[in-house]
Amino acid sequence: MSAQQNPAPETPGSTEPRPLRLTLAAVLAALEGLALMAGGAYILVLGLTGDPDDRQQAVTGGVTLIVLALLPLLAARGLLGRRSWSRGPAVITQIMALPVAYNLLRADSMAVPGGIVLGVVAVAALVLLVNQETTRALGIRGPGSETE
After folding, report:
1. Contact 74, 86 (CB under 8 A)
2. 7 falls in which pLDDT band (50, 70, 90)?
3. 104: which residues sit within 8 A by CB, 6+ positions away?
4. Is 33 in contact with 14 (CB distance < 8 Å)?
5. What is the mean pLDDT of residues 105-116?
6. Nearest CA to 84 among 32, 136, 124, 132?
7. CA distances from 118 to 32, 35, 36, 40, 93 (A)
8. Cβ count near 60 (within 10 Å)
9. What b/e sequence results for 95-121 when a residue is b if at least 16 CB atoms lie within 10 Å of its CB, and e otherwise?
10. Residue 145: what pLDDT?
11. pTM for the whole thing?
């Protein structure tokens, strides 16, 4: 067993510049992760310093959002690094965002604009992630495709 790490296998076309669609998908995933992180931190701080109805629930909610923020942030990093594994977590994040956006749209409050933004971002990111150019840049082959 060698003490050196094995380098990650290169994805096809990794010498080519990163496609704009892949970069945009990574940026959208990172923005969602940062928004979750900020929301979680806000709820956590409010739960610890404010006067919530249930302090334990506020702290748990804040910590949960911070932990959930790791999924899109890791996916964004993987997308920027052209790692094929990163598309799965990015797609899952967008699929989870759609029901949240729907519930925000149904609210009779200031949450409606947030639901619109979240829905648009989730759909745009999904379109970018399943695009053929993005798939090719990540080295993902579809079913039935021949090996090179």
Report:
1. yes
2. very low
3. 111, 112, 114, 115, 118
4. no
5. 90
6. 136
7. 8, 10, 11, 16, 11
8. 14
9. eebeeebeebeeeeeeeeebbeebbeb
10. 66
11. 0.82
